[in-house]
């Protein structure tokens, strides 16, 4: 399965939590489905751990409607806040959705399949174009639903660095370009196609290789994005 950028937009959502009157903490999430058997399908919302721990009973998510508008819904429509499963090491969390008559109508054609997530420890080729889809500074959800994308390339294999939020060591891979606040938790895709002039090259499928952690910078002004590898997801979604 190949996802065009516009198709991938339906799989992402914005998290929005009011921290003061009119001031919001924002992040990005992705809907993921996994299938236990032909009759049992699980739904999840995946994001960065530091985004997940900031959610409350008042957190809202913003999704795309079928006609491309922004729909604002309470997160607790999909289950209680206690449904979060946090990785003990990596900056990634998964919220298991409890399907109901109330939320099912919003879930059609929404989920990215779990078997398109790179859960191996194989590093991402530095020759593959990667696309991050999210909501920098909360932009992209006013009226129309229009997430922001940026394209980049991996600039490293797996490196062990302290997390920006907790200081705990975790594995990451880096992108040549920096991230922006609000992209935290967004998926990093190899969409499976690239266009160069009149030529389009396609692969077997779209892959999600990681979840955005944040930006690393130093006093020289240099900045690169840190991505939590997707293989950490299997630790919190195993058996589902």
Structure in words:
The protein is mainly beta and 240 residues long. The protein is built from three helices and 17 strands. It has helices at residues 5-8, 49-52, 233-237; strands at 12-20, 23-37, 40-47, 60-64, 70-74, 84-86, 93-96, 112-113, 130-134, 148-152, 159-162, 169-175, 187-190, 193-196, 199-202, 207-217, 223-229. Strands 1, 2, 3, 4, 5, 6, 7 and 8 form an eight-stranded mixed beta sheet that branches. Strand 11 (159-162) and strand 12 (169-175) form a beta hairpin. It is globular and about 50 Å long. The mean pLDDT is 90.
- The helix/strand class is mainly beta
The residue-averaged pLDDT reads 90
Portion in beta strands: 35-45%
Name the quaternary structure: single chain
**Element string (H = helix, E = strand):** HEEEHEEEEEEEEEEEEEEH
Largest sheet, if any?
8 strands, mixed
Cα gyration radius (Å): 17 Å
Distance between the termini: 22 Å
- Helix count equals 3
Assign a percent range to the helix content: under 10%
Shape: globular
Uncertain segments of ≥5 residues (pLDDT<50)?
A: none
**Got a strand count?**
17
Features:
mainly beta; seven-stranded antiparallel sheet; 17 strands; about 40% strand
Please outline the helices and strands.
Layout (H helix, E strand, L loop, with lengths): L4 H4 L3 E9 L2 E15 L2 E8 L1 H4 L7 E5 L5 E5 L9 E3 L6 E4 L15 E2 L16 E5 L13 E5 L6 E4 L6 E7 L11 E4 L2 E4 L2 E4 L4 E11 L5 E7 L3 H5 L3
Parallel strand pairs: 2-8
Antiparallel strand pairs: 1-2, 1-4, 2-3, 3-7, 4-5, 6-7, 9-10, 9-13, 11-12, 12-17, 13-16, 14-15, 16-17
């Amino acid at each position: 399965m190949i996802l065009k950028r516009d198709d991938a937009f339906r799989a992402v959502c914005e998290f929005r939590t009011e921290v003061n009157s009119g001031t919001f903490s924002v992040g990005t999430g992705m809907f993921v489905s996994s299938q236990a058997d032909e009759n049992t399908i699980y739904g999840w919302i995946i994001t960065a751990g530091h985004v997940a721990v900031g959610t409350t009973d008042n957190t809202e998510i913003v999704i795309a409607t079928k006609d491309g508008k922004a729909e604002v819904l309470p997160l607790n429509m999909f289950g209680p806040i206690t449904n979060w499963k946090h990785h003990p090491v990596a900056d990634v969390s998964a919220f298991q959705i409890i399907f109901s008559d109330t939320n099912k109508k919003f879930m059609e054609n929404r989920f990215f399949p779990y078997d398109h997530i790179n859960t191996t420890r194989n590093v991402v080729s530095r020759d593959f174009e990667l696309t991050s889809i999210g909501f920098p500074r909360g932009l992209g959800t006013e009226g129309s639903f229009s997430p922001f994308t940026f394209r980049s390339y991996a600039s490293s294999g797996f490196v062990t660095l302290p997390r920006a939020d907790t200081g705990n060591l975790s594995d990451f891979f880096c992108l040549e370009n920096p991230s922006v606040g609000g992209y935290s938790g967004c998926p990093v895709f190899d969409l499976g196609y690239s266009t160069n002039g009149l030529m389009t090259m396609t692969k077997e499928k779209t892959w999600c290789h990681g979840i955005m952690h944040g930006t690393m910078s130093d006093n020289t002004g240099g900045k690169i994005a840190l991505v939590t590898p997707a293989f950490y997801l299997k630790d919190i979604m195993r058996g589902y």
